[in-house]
Amino acid sequence: MNSRRTFIKNVGIAAAGAIVLPSFACTPAKAKPVGLQLYTLREVIGKDVKGVIEQVAKAGYKEVETYGYSAQGGYWGLDAKAFKSLLDANGLKAPSGHFGLDPFIKDGNQDDLKINIEGAKGIGMDYLTVPWLGENLRSSLDDYKKVAARLNEAAEICKKSGLTLAYHNHDFEFKKYDGGTGYEVMLQETDKDNVKFEMDLYWVVRSGNDPVALFNKYPGRFPMWHVKDMDKAKPSINTEVGSGSIDFKSIFKHAKQAGLKHAIVEQENFSMDPFISIKKSFDHVNHDLI
């Protein structure tokens, strides 16, 4: 958790299988692909982006979610065109990417937002996803109301470029202020048609909340999920999907209510080779959850 937060702060950015919704339950072909958040492989992707992408595809994944894009470095040293070509060569799509939005949320400066939009459009994304909020932006419910207003503004700008804005949670959004939480403020005060949410199931469960209750209260707002399992002995760390304590089968039954379109594996720490790990998670989601 700390390494992720530190990384996001320093770099300025910062599961899972895609599932077959109930209406597809009896079809032999899988209606949804399985995705991987590439932050999972952050220790190796910068050293060999081509080799890592090839390994992700060999593990069975059909989608990836990016992080860390910048105008200077592109996607791990590749510009958007070259990275898209690499994905295409491996039968992969990138429907979403994580792009930091703190400068815009703080003062409305659109410079970084426009750069991020260009990066997202360059590889054919559908969603520009906000992965994190700096601590200085979220110390009260009033702060979250300001965040929600900025998200609405950013969503309108994204919409003009053919993108949908989404927000990815951690656990801090569930801190209570006078009985309310920042997460509910954002859900209630953002345009339900323009602002979507990428629910990180691990963080929702770890914070003591129920994903299904949120799906029922805010139907259709959660087209993306991070499917990340919780270690049974040490809840502060992750484990391979299907090996931990989260009851994904019960959650996945409510995919239609949530509006799920993309389920994306993510794991932040490993007790085995990361490529073996992502294959185990893929196999569980692909064979047991869809």
The N- and C-terminal alpha carbons lie at a distance of 28 Å
Q: What is the name of the CATH architecture?
A: Alpha-Beta Barrel
The number of distinct β-strands equals 12
Report the biggest beta sheet as strand number plus sense, adding barrel if it closes. Answer: 8 strands, parallel, barrel
Tally the structural domains: 1
Question: What's the overall geometry?
Answer: globular
Instruction: Give the strand order, joined by hyphens, for the main sheet.
Output: 1-2-3-4-5-8-9-12
Judged by helices, strands and strand pairing, the structural class is alpha/beta
Radius of gyration: 18 Å
Count of helical segments?
A: 13
CATH domain fold name: TIM Barrel
Regions with little confidence, pLDDT below 50 for 5+ residues: 5-29
CATH class: Alpha Beta
Beta content = 15-25%
Averaged pLDDT, please?
91
Reconstruct the topology from this structure.
Blueprint: H1 2-11, E1 34-37, H2 42-45, H3 49-58, E2 63-66, H4 80-89, E3 93-98, H5 102-107, H6 111-122, E4 127-130, H7 141-160, E5 164-168, E6 176-177, E7 180-181, H8 182-189, E8 195-200, H9 201-206, H10 211-217, E9 224-227, E10 229-230, E11 238-239, H11 248-252, H12 255-258, E12 262-265, H13 274-289
Parallel strand pairs: 1-2, 1-12, 2-3, 3-4, 4-5, 5-8, 8-9, 9-12
Antiparallel strand pairs: 6-7, 10-11
Helix pairs in contact: 7-8
